[in-house]
Design a protein that fits this description.
Radius of gyration: 41 Å
Number of domains: 3
Number of strands: 17
Strand content: 15-25%
CATH class of the largest domain: Alpha Beta
Number of helices: 8
CATH architecture of the largest domain: 2-Layer Sandwich
Structural class: alpha+beta
Helix content: 25-40%
CATH topology of the largest domain: Major capsid protein gp5 fold
CATH superfamily of the largest domain: Major capsid protein gp5
Shape: elongated
Order of helices and strands: HHEEEHHEEEEEEHHEHEHEEEEEE
Distance between the termini: 90 Å
């Protein structure tokens, strides 16, 4: 009679081989699976899964049969009690009765009850009978008993780190550049004066007369002189700054838990980007800090609109970007608490301006501009401007380095995982930005 386990193994091997050949063919031809191949793959994988499950059950059955055979060695039938007893006297149920029935019908139980006055035990009377039951205990707590068939329900990492991280979108609206130096020098426009005007044709060729007040020449009437405009600029030098952090981890954890590498990598890289966003907005320019938007001289300000509300205040700030900064705003920066205030605004009839809880996506656009919610902006303050006139220069993009050459890590089987990046930040036209006071 052919071995059932061997048949199941052959069936499992066959379906796995067929599935691998289909996958290998598609990979060799550098293409996706066809509909036919995808159907065949699903069929082979399903049958392979069935074969594997059947094989595991067959193995378990064989193991249990062997265990029962071992337990049954030397068992003799007690015709009178209808029990099977081992040479040591322990009772083994015959499979037709439950453990409870076997116990209550046993001679040991009858002997136990004979010791009870009138068939009842007193409150403080000790009770003890001869052993009744199986030769060995089957328990799910032991790996050498029923616990061998108990599989842990391992769920693994069901949520990613992104659930604990804030969205970082400031990079999306600023100008991104790169540099190969450790210092960036650029021109910052501080003011402009536009005196362009219509000019009549000259009617006199006479030269200007002697200097007038403050030593300036006096133009002759009809000279056809053109008005002079002006640009005020300043040369600004900003150093490339290093942003970095690290964590320690054991070599064993790094080797045995492969997913931890991804988690650490994601966590460390995210930490750099979060600090970068904080520096781009709030850096005070001292020490190793960036000169952030909130500390750049020349940024306009918009006070709270006492005749309106937060919406009118934000709208007036946008106007200043256009009329004073001579720029076109491309985004608002708001703290989530202030964005909540905007979302909850209602008219006199209690209707939400932005559609209320059922509004989809409307709250992400304000006065025609996208809103970037970020905790890097303190509550009660907002920014609006042409963020294309803010430049982020990447010197070295985020990198991950692992080493045991730190302190005594080598002899302790520890490694340091370091993440770092180098970048510089600058505002080329401060007047294209407005800081908004959102405190009523």
């Amino acid at each position: 009679m052919p071995d059932k386990n061997e048949e199941l193994r052959d069936e499992l091997t066959h379906h796995l081989k067929e599935a691998r050949e289909i996958a290998a063919k598609a990979e060799a031809e550098d293409r996706d699976f066809t509909d036919t191949e995808r159907t065949q793959l699903n069929e082979h994988m399903a049958k392979a899964k069935e074969a594997k499950s059947a094989l595991e059950k067959a193995k378990a059955t064989a193991t249990m049969r062997q265990a029962l055979a071992d337990l049954g060695e030397g068992v003799a039938l007690n015709e009178k009690a209808g029990e099977k007893r081992t040479p040591s006297g322990l009772i083994v149920p015959d499979g037709k009765t439950s453990l409870g029935e076997t116990f209550t019908k046993s001679a040991e139980y009858a002997g136990l009850m004979a010791t009870a006055p009138n068939g009842k035990f007193g409150q403080k009377q000790r009770v003890q009978s001869m052993p009744v039951g199986f030769k060995s205990l089957v328990t799910g707590a032991s790996d050498t008993s029923a616990g061998a068939w108990v599989e842990n329900d391992y769920l693994g990492q069901r949520v990613g780190l992104e659930l604990f991280q804030r969205p970082l979108m400031l990079r999306d609206v600023v100008t991104n550049g790169s540099t190969t130096s450790d210092t960036v020098e650029y021109v910052r426009m501080t003011s402009t004066t536009n005196n362009a005007a219509p000019v009549a044709e000259a009617t006199s060729s006479a030269a200007p007369t002697a200097p007038g007040g403050a030593g300036a020449l006096v133009n002759n009437a009809g000279g056809g002189y053109k008005p002079e405009s002006a640009l005020a600029a300043a040369k600004v030098t900003t150093p490339v700054r290093t942003i970095a952090h690290w964590i320690p981890i054991t070599k064993r954890a790094l080797s045995d838990a492969s997913q931890i590498r991804t988690l650490i990598d994601s966590f460390l890289r995210y930490g750099l980007e979060e600090e970068l966003e904080d520096q781009m907005i709030g850096g005070d320019g001292t020490g190793e800090n960036f000169e952030g938007l909130s500390n750049v001289s020349g940024v306009q300000s918009q006070a709270w609109d006492t005749t309106g509300n937060i919406l009118s205040t934000l709208r007036k700030a946008k106007t200043k970007v256009r009329t004073v900064g001579r720029s076109v705003a491309n985004a608002y920066l708001l703290n989530p608490a202030d964005m909540e205030t905007v979302d909850l605004l209602q008219d006199n009839e209690g209707r939400f301006y932005f559609g209320g809880p059922s509004g989809v996506g409307s709250a992400s656009v304000l006065w025609g501009l996208p809103v970037i919610e970020t905790e890097a902006v303190p509550a009660g303050t907002g920014y609006v401007g042409d963020f294309r006139k803010a430049i982020l220069w990447d010197r070295e993009q985020a990198s991950i380095t692992v080493t045991d050459s730190h302190a005594d890590f080598f002899v302790r089987n520890l490694v340091a995982i370091l993440a770092e990046m180098r970048a510089a930040f600058g505002i080329i036209q401060p007047s294209a930005f407005v800081e908004v006071d959102l405190t009523a």
